[in-house]
Amino acid sequence: MQIFVNGDRHDIEPATLALALDALGYGGKKIATAVNGRFVAAPARPKVELSDGDKIEVLAPMQGG
Amino acid sequence: MAFYGVELSSRLLLGTARYPSPKMLAEAIKASQAEVVTVSLRREAGSERGGQGFWSIIRALGVRVLPNTAGCHSVKEAVTTAHMARELFDTPWIKLEVIRDDETLQPDVFGLVEAAKVLNEEGFEVFPYTTEDLAVADRLVEAGCKVLMPWGAPIGSARGLNNAYGLKAMRAHFPDIPLVVDAGLGVPSHAAAAMELGYDAVLLNTAVAEAGDPVAMAKAFALAIEAGRMAFAARPMEPRDMAVPSTPVFGKAALGG
Predict the structure, then answer these.
(1) Using one digit for the tens of pLDDT, what is the confidence trace for B106-119?
(2) Of A13, A16, A59, whose CA–CA distance to A34 is shortest?
(3) What is the pTM of this model?
(4) Which of A42, A63, B43, B82 maximizes the CB count within 10 A of its CB?
């Protein structure tokens, strides 16, 4: 199935958010996530089953004013 | 000075964006003696992982972070960003920005009040980026905000205190709420002027980051803020319309014709 991570398309096997993040190299990183505009807390990531077309945002600490 | 029960000795809050290099950022923060720095959340690029390196720098400095919702244009966006920030940075503090206009980066004060209400009810400690409008400020306080951050001028404009009269009125109207001038400052005298009005602190970023020598400018702002605060505490004299001789007139020699 296709998912979109930070706007980029990825083809993955059906998975949870946690597994998809691991597969995309985000495992162990300091990140916060949202799926389709909704915040998904870190403890909930293994329970969120992704669906075709899901839009995932992976945010990290960044410079800000 | 305390924000939400957290005592701070520095009255300068410093932004972390737009520095020429990470090394310069770290040196400027040290020179400023700021105990609070603002940070944001952005998409972590698949290959670069720039956010992880930035976070290591901030961690090593041992400063407290104030995450922002910069760039958010709706209540939903700002609230979701705040939730992500709370988890990412492990803090209930949030610098709440809901922007209406991209030219001026003027806050959408209606969205701001609405988002502040939601976030305060959810246990956040909100630092709203607002204007000097007293009615809006009242609404923000009613919504549970215990700090207010009016702009000096539009973000990054370096124009200083556009409405010193309005900022002075705000200080008088909210004597017990910590007030921070946030944004629009260009030079240390702007920060000193804010402090002389009785503001509790100043938040700035671009004025330091885009100076020719950010480290020296960080120190200059820190000194100006300290001087301005000291001047406020020393109770400045009132301006007068007419001259008053400072040298005593009594005892002056009669040397005229």
Answers:
(1) 999 999 999 999 99
(2) A59
(3) 0.94
(4) B82
Within 10 angstroms of residue B212's Cβ, the number of other Cβ atoms is: 7
Angstroms from A24 CA to nearest CA on chain B:
8
- For the stretch A7-30, pLDDT in tens is 999 999 989 999 999 999 998 899
Distance from CA of A43 to the nearest CA of B (A): 11
Cβ–Cβ under 8 Å, residues B191 and B228: yes
Q: Under a CB-based contact definition with an 8 Å cutoff, are residues B157 and B124 in contact? A: no
Chain A from 45 to 64: CB within 8 A of any B CB: 57-64
Inter-chain contact A32–B52, Cβ cutoff 8 Å?
A: no
Q: Is B69 on the interface with A (CB under 8 A)?
A: no
Nearest CA in chain B to A26: B46
Model confidence pLDDT, tens digit, residues B188-247: 999 999 999 999 999 999 999 999 999 999 999 999 999 999 999 999 999 999 999 999
Catalytic residues of B: 95
What's the gap in Å between the CA of A38 and the closest CA on chain B?
7
Select the residue of B44, B68, B76 nearest A64 (Cβ to Cβ). Answer: B68
Could you tell me which chain A residue has the CA closest to the CA of B82? A39
Q: Which residues of B touch A8 (CB under 8 A)?
A: 46
Write down the ipTM of this complex: 0.96
